[in-house]
Amino acid sequence: MKNLKLMASALLITTMASAQDIKLEQVPPSIQKNFKNEYSKAKDVEWELDGELYEVEFEINKMDHEVWYDKDGKVMRLEKEISAKELPSTIISLIKSKYAGFKIDKAQITTTEQRTIYEVELEKGWTEERKVLFDKDGKVLSDFED
């Protein structure tokens, strides 16, 4: 679990250090086309070049989204804010039993070719907050105070 936190922190720092804002005109046409076809209702669209990947941040129905494309327009990673109702029932059941008294504050799904991870922020009153990562089957991958 400690290693997962360190890896996540290192990835965040690396991403923040290497990503740079770019204009739409700097995004390859194939990526622009794929994005427009898939996310025609996107609002507040911002593009970045993150190493060799094109990252786009946007909102749909007030929910945050981030998509990373390779130079050919293939989606490499998708992060999407979701409602608690969209979480798999196995995760909801586990939260109710293992985290009794906590409420779901925020939920996100991250999808890559290799795996799907659900990140859930839980809160109990004003003082307790937890961040829990689940795999697609509901197994807890990481659980720490936030």
Tell me the number of structural domains.
Answer: 2
The CATH topology label of the largest domain is: Nuclear Transport Factor 2, Chain: A
- Structure class: alpha+beta
- Summarize the biggest pleated sheet: 9 strands, antiparallel
Rg value: 17 Å
Q: What is the helix content?
A: 25-40%
Distance between the termini: 14 Å
The neighbouring-strand order within the major sheet is 1-2-3-4-5-6-7-8-9
Broad shape? elongated
Q: What number is the mean pLDDT?
A: 90
N-to-C SSE series? HEHEEEEHEEEE
CATH architecture of the largest domain: Roll
Number of helices: 3
CATH class placement of the largest domain: Alpha Beta
What oligomeric assembly is this protein in? single chain
Q: Strand portion, in percent?
A: over 45%
**Uncertain ranges:** 9-16
Task: Report the count of strand segments.
Answer: 9
Kindly list the characteristics that best describe this protein.
single chain, 9-stranded antiparallel β-sheet, Nuclear Transport Factor 2, Chain: A, 3 helices, 146 residues, alpha+beta, 2 domains
